[in-house]
Backbone:
């Protein structure tokens, strides 16, 4: 088996794919978005609930993800990174993860920031997979914009 | 494993395709099983294009100088070559487009913009119906949806039967006096299903509807003879039949092309231009606005030469054998389900399958690690996948250069994939 | 005869163009003066395309396998390269079409098919006006006529002044609140006239009209920087700028592309497809239905590399010098009249002329016998010719590989032509 | 000067171009047609008058031709070949001329049939010029169809 492959499908990724964290669609939520990757047909429905106190604490991220192991694992890991932190706190996490994923392997990835997200960076060398892994994050960003718009 | 036919010397063919010697990793040769998406080009096609470009290139149809004459000859000879390949009665029935997609868009747009001078048969209007099938590639579906949106017509479709062929049991009620167009694919790019052209043509004739055949996935794999198929308009792609990207073909009966309004407008398709109005040239010029894909036409003609030298009957036989080999091999793997009519001996070109519990993207990734280049996803036939409750499939598609050993490697690779994912606790 | 600039080594450039060594007769070398119709390709462009095709070719954007990745990278890198060549802020503003003609048709169609969700600015409707110029190539005139016919809008035009530049004295009354689009060429393919982009953009802005620039005849010959031109949409051809046929470019401001409805529909431009409706992807994908001209994009990127290595300022200076040399030489021949602004130092690329009493076809024939490949006729700008009472002109056009000696040969050839016909009793 | 060129622009062609026979538009006529060559913008307006006795004798061919020397000479030579003969008589002339023009120089041309038309065959080797030379004949054929239709 090629080393590429073992870098992609780690035990951790398969574990997140099989038993995704925070999966399912829950109430309450501030906004719900639906994203599609038109090339492969993958879909994610994502709901975001922020605290009402103005601190923008992420009280819940719930989702329904149809897709490959990488994309489902990415959603699981993301939800776990987001829940309980404020939007401001997770912004550097998101930014670093996106940068590393887009770097084709040049940016190593800081485990202190992105936690289990490290396990996904094997996909950075496969441009077709980068989209899979980033789709949940794009959905989160869109949900954030929408939540703010609805709240305003 | 069935041996390739004696006359069909795959090893000699492979030597014509420079890209086939590519390695993906130092120890992983590339096994190209994605000809259904785009084919590779033999040296003969590359050379024809370069020879044209280094010797005869100029603008076509517009010049009096000798280079323009040479270029025009090359371009028009290519048109004759393609007409001949398709059995068309006249090269004037062959329009070069940029792709099968453009050819289908051309038809769908032209049918929507006629005026009082256009015969009713060639005008899709409010209340009219366009009949497609549930297995269409987006290229033969979305342009019709857009035509319907613009005109107030309605798109209806022949549904799929459980056995992955068309369910034409309701054909009688789907084809009505309101049906203006029946547009369908010759061979499904996912299922490999070959559609019953004759039956659909007959149904169309009974109500005076036009037939539009998407031959993008048949022309590369089996004889396509427009003089016997009975359809009115045909679309195909150069790049799927060993030719260049950037070129496609619309074939149409001359008496129809002659009455169809132009789609793209500009240079070379006009008769007279005034500031406030213009008149248009006869087909095929009417449908070829602007500088056409000249060197690409030359390349496509060389691809026709190449395929005809092999013989399309022989090509079909070769690919049918590979297809049966793949179907048999894959069906023997636990958890693998063939998406397509497994028993059909006619089918060529492509085998799609589902691996239980595994997303096709993951399947494709493992196969890629073994050098196997297969396509995953909905293959631009999303409604078809939805119909069968699938998000996507994995598709291996075969070409003239595919060997039985490569099909064996595919079967082994899929078995390995199942094992690979099964190995995680 | 002015010497070519020191840095601009025309002999070295010529060595890059294999076709330039072609002989037309055993003693007649080919002198290619028809780059305005289509340019020749340097070896670097041919090689880039062949390298891609023999090493990396696969379908783009649709595959998970490594070949698809390589092909997608090649294609998207080409988009970045073209964006960079044009000074575009983002590659997402670059749409690959099959030609400048398709790019202009795309715009004209898209502006005609919007619905309630499309901003008014991007919808041409009954009563609206489209302003063009009397010097337009048919590619930037006929699509607007057709749009007007389909929508009930009106095409108006800025007339020509006697000095072969635009007569913009009535611009104030031509540009009104009804004007939705001002479409004009950057440089005339016949006259060489360079239009006052800034003034026209200003006029358009004053009424909120879109500006569409036909850069097919400027991009090969002078720097074209969309970030400073101020126009909204730009069309150009690959094959006129040393690149392949079968590829063109539409550049547009992203905020406009984002709101424009798609033109061609099919695979790769969709978001979700159902049997009865579909939604569409973001630009540029939205405007690239079907398999795009992949190897041609790679070739075009190589052409951009080639031109940038020479430097577009240097290219412009080289061609301006040749143009002035030709203008001076031809003006000295009895009976020859320059059709174009003889005094303009900006003009590059093309010199058109009339030989008194002689049909351009006959002029071209004599020049061809001398190896001089010039274009004759109306050059797809029929209304312009009609305006000046001409049935056609003879046009010599210059490229990076044109030498001062070739321009001398042209001048001598035209003098010979006049003598030749004068010799008959 | 190349031999090609002298084969194209013979004294005879130039003479017909300068002083075309039967030029101008005259009355009476059975039908008038207008043909254009879109590539070069050449135009011909042609009028045809057949005898009223059913013999289809070509009583007059009058025309106004804008075009290159070859196309103008072709119109002149054609008019001279047509006038005074019946449609049936000239059909072999037309057919042979068209065949020779389309043959790229392979068909020599029978002077007994096509008379001065022989002088135009130099153009057969130049595909772009073949159209110029055949345009008057196409116009004649169209006028014939129209005359018959109007007469019927
Ligand atoms: C059945 C079918 N029709 C149409 C097309 C569109 O072809 P192209 O992308 O060359 O326009 C394809 C290929 O993608 C196809 O498989
Ligand atoms: C000014 C101008 N616009 C548009 C075009 C059309 O270009 P293309 O034929 O490549 O579509 C041309 C070339 O013929 C041109 O010269």
Residues:
């Amino acid at each position: 088996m090629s080393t590429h492959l073992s870098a992609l499908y780690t035990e951790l990724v398969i574990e997140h794919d099989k038993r995704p964290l925070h999966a399912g669609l829950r109430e309450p939520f501030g906004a719900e978005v639906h994203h599609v990757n038109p090339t492969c047909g993958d879909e994610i429905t994502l709901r975001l609930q922020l605290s009402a106190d103005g601190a923008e604490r992420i009280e819940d991220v719930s989702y329904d993800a149809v897709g490959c192991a990488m994309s489902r694992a990415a959603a699981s890991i993301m939800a776990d990174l987001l829940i309980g932190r404020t939007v401001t706190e997770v912004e550097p996490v998101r930014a670093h993860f996106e940068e590393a994923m887009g770097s084709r392997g040049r940016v190593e990835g800081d485990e202190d920031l992105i936690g289990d997200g490290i396990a996904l960076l094997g996909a950075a060398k496969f441009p077709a997979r980068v989209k899979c892994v980033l789709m949940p994050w794009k959905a989160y960003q869109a949900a954030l914009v929408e939540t703010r718009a609805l709240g305003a | 494993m069935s041996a390739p036919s004696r006359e069909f010397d795959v090893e000699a063919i492979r030597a014509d395709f420079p890209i086939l010697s590519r390695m993906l990793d130092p120890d992983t040769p590339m096994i190209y099983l994605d000809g259904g998406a785009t084919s590779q080009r033999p040296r003969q096609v590359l050379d024809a294009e370069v020879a044209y470009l280094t010797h005869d290139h100029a603008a076509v149809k517009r010049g009096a100088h000798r280079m323009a004459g040479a270029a025009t000859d090359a371009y028009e000879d290519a048109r004759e070559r393609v007409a001949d390949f398709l059995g068309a009665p006249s090269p004037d029935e062959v329009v070069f487009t940029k792709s099968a997609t453009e050819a289908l868009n051309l038809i769908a747009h032209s049918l929507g913009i006629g005026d009082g001078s256009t015969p009713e048969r060639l005008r899709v209007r409010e209340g009219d119906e366009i009949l497609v099938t549930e297995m269409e590639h987006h290229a033969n579906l979305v342009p019709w949806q857009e035509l319907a949106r613009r005109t107030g017509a309605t798109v209806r479709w022949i549904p799929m039967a459980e056995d992955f062929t068309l369910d034409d049991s309701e054909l009688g009620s789907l084809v009505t006096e309101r049906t203006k167009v029946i547009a369908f694919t010759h061979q499904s790019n996912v299922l490999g299903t070959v559609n019953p052209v004759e039956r659909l043509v007959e149904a169309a004739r009974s109500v005076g509807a036009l037939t539009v055949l998407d031959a993008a996935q048949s022309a590369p794999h089996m004889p396509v003879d427009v003089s016997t198929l009975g359809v009115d308009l045909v679309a195909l792609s150069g790049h799927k039949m060993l030719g260049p990207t950037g070129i496609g073909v619309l074939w149409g009966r001359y008496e129809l092309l002659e009455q169809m309004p132009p789609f793209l407008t500009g240079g070379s398709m006009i008769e007279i231009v005034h500031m406030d109005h213009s008149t248009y040239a006869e087909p095929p010029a009417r449908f070829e606005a602007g500088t056409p894909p000249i060197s690409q036409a030359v390349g496509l003609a060389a691809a026709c030469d190449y395929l005809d030298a092999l013989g399309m009957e022989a090509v079909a036989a070769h690919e049918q054998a590979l297809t049966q080999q793949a179907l048999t091999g894959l069906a023997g793997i636990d958890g693998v389900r063939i998406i397509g009519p497994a028993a059909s001996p006619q089918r060529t070109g492509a085998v799609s399958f589902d691996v239980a519990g595994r997303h096709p993207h993951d399947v494709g990734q493992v196969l890629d690690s073994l050098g196997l280049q297969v396509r995953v996803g909905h293959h631009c036939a999303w409604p078809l996948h939805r119909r069968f409750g699938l998000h996507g499939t994995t598709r291996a598609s075969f070409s003239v250069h595919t060997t039985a050993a490569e099909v064996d490697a595919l079967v082994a690779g899929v078995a390995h994939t199942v094992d690979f994912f099964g190995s995680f606790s």
